[in-house]
Structures are given as structure tokens and as C-alpha cells.
């Protein structure tokens, strides 16, 4: 089996690729704007500009993958508001091109999306709930989903929210919080935005199960705890033995961000658990697993090591 991961330099790919190696016997092809060095015998890296339709098409036809995982996205929510053309090119047009290439190769396409496709008035949301994005990021991600719905290929959309536990150079929300804690800098966290943060491994496990079972349709991933960002960051501080006084409660209005956010977002994961057998992780277990993962790395930041060794 051949699996092609597009956006292999993304935060999610930092967890997905090792899991694909561990849990499948597939040959893994990585496509990225960056040169990804690997001497693993099952990995082939392809450096290209995936926004160039012809290059993308040629890549898919040369690899002839059974499954393509699309992790390419313009994920800067405020940035999407300001550069709508770029948001559309990355989050919609590229998905359309990819779907066409997958049709030529008869490949399944697994695409990752977000709870920002909902308006956030009454989350958490099920797959069957009515969408209604309140930001351009959410609108573009929804349009990307819709492009698949009419593509005529075997497609799956995995929606997720507040992904943490990744190991890429670019920090996810948790890694950003830990960097600030390490520098003993305060972290402003909103008390009025709710979600169920996703341990990245659960997202990746869902993607792998969708490939294994060649399942199509929309699937939600998220953790078992529904909480505000403030509560999440406070739990991080407690677990990493950082004074909780560094966590500064603010409201969304205080932040004055460019794009609107869903206030009660988050995703109900019953379908994913029952149909794919993926068990979602609690915040506590996710943080402990990530802390363990950090300890396995050779050089975690000094301050963090102190916090870790104290436990
Ligand atoms: N992170 C979250 O909390 C979160 C929450 C909800 C949904 N999601 C969804 O999950 C998926 C993966 O998210 P992620 O956080 O892992 O993504 P990410 O770290 O932001 O990476 C996205 C990747 O997209 C590619 N990319 C971005 N802008 C590009 C451009 N202008 N031209 C070409 N390529 C570009 C890059 O791939 P290369 O580096 O390989 O070139 C980049 O690494 C996305 O679909 C996102 O919408 C994420």
C-alpha cells in the first residue's frame, strides 16, 4: 500500500508519520515545501510547491497512492481574515486540485477540517449538526469540505479542534503555552471560549482507521473534556508545576482579535468511537503522555526539565 501525506511539514504530520510507520506496513510518501530528510526505507520525500496544480497532479500520478492525507492548510485564523485570497487558494482551490488528482489515481482522500465550520452558539457539535462559520478561516475550511462532497471520489473529512501533543518545530497551542511558562511569562487565556482539545494521537489514529477501513464521510475527533482555554492552560500549569498565577484570565472581547471565534465550539466524537473504535483521550492523560514524550526527546528546554523532574 502507498500512502501520500501532503503538508508533511505540518504539526500534525510530526505525529502522523511515526504512527503510520508503526501501525501500517505501507510505503509512505511525504510531500512538503520543505526538504524532509529521512533515511527510513519506507519513506520517500518529495519537495514541491503543492499549490501548483500540475506539480501536484504529476506527484499523485507518479506515486499512485491508495490513500492521500491532506494536512496542508492556512491555519492562521486572523491571517485568513486579512488575506482571503491566500486562504481560499490553500484551503479550497488546493483541495479541489487534490480531489481531481485523486480521481485520476483512484485514491481515497482524507482531509482534515475544524470545528470552526460551526458558529459556536451551542457546541459541542455532531457530524449531522448545521454548519455556519463565523470567520473566513471557517468559511474557507467549509468550502474545502464542500469541494469534496461533490468530487465523486472516496473522501473522508476528519474535523478536529485545539490539537495538542505535536512535536514539530512550529509550536501547537500547548507547546506555545509551555514555551511561555518556561520563560516565566504570563499566558492570557480566555474564559469564555469552550472546546474539547484533541490529543494529536487520537486525530492520527482516526486518519489511520479511515485508511484501513476505506471509510468515507465526516468524522469528528476531540478529547473527552469540554473546557475553556483558561481551564486548559491552568491544567497545563498544574501538571508542569508552574505557578497558576502565570495564567491570566481574559475574555474574548479583551483580546480584540481580527476574526470572530466560535464561543462554544468543540466536537462530539461518538460516531468516530463507535464506527472506528478510536478511544479519545482526556486532557489529563494527553498531557501526561505528552510530558513523557518530551522526556524521551534529547533536549527539552531547561526550565521544563526542572518542572518534569520535580514530578
Ligand atoms: N492545529 C489545530 O489546533 C487545528 C485545529 C483544528 C483543525 N486543524 C486542521 O488540521 C489540519 C492540520 O493542521 P496543523 O496545525 O497540523 O497544520 P500546520 O502545522 O499549520 O501546517 C499546515 C501545513 O500546510 C502547508 N502550508 C501552509 N501554508 C502554505 C502555503 N501558503 N503554501 C504551501 N503550503 C502551505 C505547510 O506544509 P509544508 O510545511 O509541508 O510545506 C504547513 O506546514 C489543517 O487542515 C487544520 O485546518 C488544526
Unreliable spans = 299-311
Number of helices: 12
Associated small molecules:
NADP nicotinamide-adenine-dinucleotide phosphate
* Average pLDDT: 95
Q: Which structural class best describes the helix and strand composition?
A: alpha/beta
What name goes with the CATH superfamily of the domain at 2-164 and 198-223 and 268-281?
NAD(P)-binding Rossmann-like Domain
Features:
12 helices, 311 residues, binds NADP nicotinamide-adenine-dinucleotide phosphate, seven-stranded parallel sheet
Q: What is the topological layout?
A:
Elements: E1 2-6, H1 13-23, E2 27-32, E3 43-47, H2 53-63, E4 67-70, H3 77-82, H4 84-105, E5 108-114, H5 136-149, E6 155-160, E7 163-164, H6 173-182, E8 187-190, E9 194-195, E10 198-199, H7 200-213, E11 217-220, E12 227-228, H8 229-239, E13 247-250, H9 252-255, H10 270-276, H11 283-296, H12 302-309
Parallel strand pairs: 1-2, 1-4, 2-3, 4-5, 5-6, 6-11, 7-10, 8-13
Antiparallel strand pairs: 9-12
Helix pairs in contact: 1-7, 2-4, 4-5, 8-11
The chain binds NADP nicotinamide-adenine-dinucleotide phosphate (NAP).
